[in-house]
Structure formats: structure tokens, C-alpha cells
Amino acid sequence: MPLRPAALPTVTRRLVSALLPAALLALAPLPVAAQGQSPEDDLPVAEIQAFAEVFERIKRAYVEEVEDADLLRNAMRGMLSELDPHSAYLDSEEFESLRESTEGEFGGVGIEVGMEDGQLTVITPIDDTPASRAGLQSRDKILRIDDTPTDRLSLQEAVNLMRGDPGTEIRLTILRQGENAPQEVTLTREVIRTESVKSELLEAGYGYLRVSQFQTRTGEQVGSAIRRLERDAPLKGLVLDLRNNPGGVLQAAVDVADAFLDEGLIVYTEGRLPDSEMRFSAGRETAAAEVPLVVLINGGSASAAEIVAGALQDQRRGVVMGTESFGKGSVQQIMPLGNGEGLKLTTALYFTPDGRSIQAQGIEPDVEVIRGRLEVAEGSGLDVREADLEGHLGSRDEQRIRSEMSERLREDYQLGEALNLLKALNVLSQRRGG
């Protein structure tokens, strides 16, 4: 059906005129080979006209006057939000917000969220933030932010509502899996300065490396942490904790995997554009190529965390333990626009070295261990040991460290199982060597 701009209202005619040159090119009677495109790539003229008519009706009949720029920006937001949960239109403030998240400092409650079945959903709370201290969990549904229902908010609108000045309060109404009634949680916003890497010795020779998210310098920080852990003696084993890690910078994930691999593919991507197809491989310089490794994951491990876990699993470099990961295996590219704003557009999918797609699949652990707490029966006599008695023989400093580590392991069943597995791997290794 040919377009007739003169027959349309003035506002509609202006809008169609802006789109008309592209439409006419699509309808021009040139051979497909000369155009370099198939008929399926032609612009849908009827839909363009319908869009222009909707635009004009809103301008003329909506209860309040709306600026043309706002209508067009909202249309662009709608186009992107309907593609997938991670594509979005970004205004200048949202560009800045994205930069702050990547570099590791912003004002808010410390929560990574996404859209799941149209509902705002917690991917993971960030370590040592108001959200994690309040007990928010992966897969919690956020029904309201203060008095605003989330069912009509875009992902970016929800993020903007949750961020704010430090010291201000925010109320989240959440519904947890397995519970019938929602609960309300009040949080106080803070300046969120996220240190993405933490490390310590669980006991002599066995290290613990926690990566809470992947920021620009995470790979460098992991290398430094491994060197600190090996300062006094070589490591007999290492736990790499990627639980509740929402992902982040792709190159940082490659750098972390490279810290444990001295060769081989880490991850590759596939998309429609030539520059969206990339391959990342390990280099020869490796911080911990031979250290026995257990990688902890759970339902809050997403995106870049799944890249690392999948690479180490496929390369048989370590044992992946915990529960199935989140399954966010898509690549978002930030595309600037001429007006100072931009797009966050999904352009490719991640694949592990063995060709497994992470998207909507996740990483299955080699050893499934449900998170829990080791409880000691009251009165069993097992909760008091010689080391707990005041004045016992031995190094007090050593005992203090052991007591703190024992409490961590008591609280974290998965971590305790990871340490046990590392010890078993060491025993087997020694027996083979003998």
C-alpha cells in the first residue's frame, strides 16, 4: 500500500516524511541483488504508517500535552525493551550509571536485577551492601519499590528508582520462591564501593578467593591475591567463589580464567555482525596453573561468572561445585548515539570452549551441593574441643585464625565441602606421585 503523506495530519506527515526516504528505497523496483538485501529486509510501510497515526492521535487526544521528543524516546525504549531483558535505551544519566557500575562505585542498595517472565527479579545482592545484609536472595521477585509497582517499569527505570542519595531509605516488597505472602524490606542507601576480589587462607596451604563481580581491574586483583596467598608457602588448593556474582566486564572474566589456564580457548561469541564474533584464549603467563581448584557457583552466578566457570570446567582445570548457575549468556554492546545518549543492545551469545551455549541453560556443577549450615546437635559434646579450652597448649595466634575459619566453614556448608574435596584431591595426587 503506497504512502500518501499529504492525506495525513500535519504531525503525522512530518514523522512519515522523516521515514519516507528509507521506505521509498525499500519499495524501489530494483533487483534484490542490486539492493543487497532480501524482500524480508524491506521496511514494513503499513506499520510505519500505523506508527505515525498512533503518534498523531497521542499528540492530539491524550489527556496531557506530551513533547514530541518524549514520545519518540519512549517509542525507542519500547522497541528495545521488547527484544530481551538486557537491551535498553540509555539517556545521558543512564550512561553515567552504567559507567559507575563498571568502575565500582555508585549510590544505592547493592543489588543486581533483571527481568524474568516480565517481573523484576534479583539476580544477586552484591557482597557487603545493604541488600546482602538484609538477606535478599537470588530469584526474589521485587513487586514494589516504595509505593511504585514494578510490573510496568522497564529494567532501567527500576534501577534508577533504587539508586539515590546515601542515607535515604527505600522499601522493597519482595516475593520469595516457596513463600505465599510477600514481605517488605526497608534498606538505607549507601555509597556502594565494591571491592570485587577478597582472599584469605582457610587453613595452612588452602586458599579462598572470592570474586563478587567482574570490574575493569578484577583480573589484575586476582593475580595479586594469588601471590599474597602464596607468600609464605605454595598453595595445596584453592577455592574460587563465584556464587552470587552477577557478571560484568567480559575482558575481566577472560583475565580471571587466564589466571588458571596456560593454553586453550576460554570463550567465544557468535552474532550477526562480523565484529560480534570473537574468540578469547589463554596466554602462557599464568598465576596458578597447577594449583588444585574448586569453583563454587549457584543460581546467582551469571554472565561473566558463567564464562569463567564454563571455561575451567571444559578445560578440565577445576571441579565446579554448588548449584546450577543463572543462565545469562548474551553479550550487550554499548552503542553511542549522536544526541549524547545510546543503546545497550544484545548482539551475540557466549559459548564455552566445548561449544555449550550459556544462554537460558546455565552451567551445571560437576558436584551438586545445596547451600546449608552445619548444625551440631545440642548436648552432643561435639561443639567443644581441646582447642576451645582456655589456656590450652599451642599457638594462640594460630588458634585464633583456626577458630575464625572454623566459624566460616560452620556457616557455609558448600565452602566446607569444597575444602574437603581439595584435601581429597591432594591425597590422590600424593599417592599417584608416590
Question: What does this protein structure show overall?
Answer:
There is one protein chain. With 434 residues, the protein is an alpha+beta fold. 34% of the residues lie in helices and 23% in strands. It contains twelve helices and 19 strands. Strands 10-11-12-15-16-19 form a six-stranded mixed β-sheet, sandwiched between helices. Helix 9 runs parallel beside helix 10 and helix 11 crosses helix 12. The longest helix is centred in the C-terminal third of the chain and has 21 residues. This is S41 family peptidase. InterPro entries: ClpP/crotonase-like_dom_sf, CtpA/B_N, PDZ, PDZ_6, PDZ_sf, Peptidase_S41A, Tail-specific_protease. It comes from Halomonas gemina. Pfam families: CtpB_N-like (PF22694), PDZ_6 (PF17820), Peptidase_S41 (PF03572). Belongs to the peptidase S41A family.
Strand order of the largest sheet: 10-11-12-15-16-19
Helix content: 25-40%
The 3D shape can be described as: globular
Main pleated sheet: 6 strands, mixed
Oligomer: single chain
Helical segment count: 12
Rounded Rg: 27 Å
Query: Low-confidence runs (pLDDT<50, min 5 residues)?
Result: 1-8, 20-36, 373-403
Mean pLDDT: 81
What is the tally of beta strands? 19
Structural class: alpha+beta
The proportion of strand residues reads: 15-25%
